[in-house]
Description:
This protein is mostly beta strands. The protein has helices spanning 2-8, 191-197, and strands at residues 26-27, 34-39, 43-50, 54-55, 59-61, 65-69, 73-79, 85-89, 94-97, 101-107, 113-120, 128-129, 151-158, 162-169, 174-175, 185-188, 198-201, 210-212, 219-222, 228-235. The longest helix has 7 residues, at 2-8.
Amino acid sequence: MLRHLLLAAAFAGPVVLRAQTIAGAVLAAREPHHHLAYEDSTLRVLRVRVPPHDSTLLHEHDADYFWIALGASEFVNARLGVPDAVARSADLAIHYAPAKFAHVARNTGATPFDNITVELLGAQSGVRNLCDEALTGKAVDCVPPAARSGVSEHPAFATDQLRVSLVSIAPGADLQLPGTMTNAWVIALDTADAAHALAIEGAGRWLGGTFRAAGGRWAIRNRGNRLSRVLLVVPLGP
């Protein structure tokens, strides 16, 4: 708990950890396998690792969230009140989960279950798939954006409030957005990239592997010698 509070103290925004509402569950941000990396008034970034043959505590997701698998994943999703189910994900697949529920994730495999979980702290509406089946069982409506030099964007899903994409940045290339879309979040899949390869050109800095643009022009240059991937979260509407 102290570690979470010390991390939260560095964030550029109010940190609100609400009390759990499901009996016997802890909030995801307080579950020991979920490591709080960044939080502001809009989203909370948790870096998650469940070692082989280990399980999380029963934990509550009190807000809608999405997660991206870091490596192919298979685990038992023991959701409170429903039968256990085996969940599988391809590497870098993005999944959306509406609140509110509690579950245990049991890793029965021989490799760690790693992911980045992003909780959306404001109410979401109009959730729709773009190029990923992020919302299970719903149609995909994929219109890839125009290619940019050295940068490819894979839009995963959108709500009325935001759009989430997986972006690949080639060595030497810059990620930058049009002037009307500069107030975005960029989440490095590997915090080592944020520390060494992904250089911010403009105002702002990495916090827990997350960069929040505060308006104005900015770019992120891949100064490394390998492809880097990031999550791009762009707010929509006014």
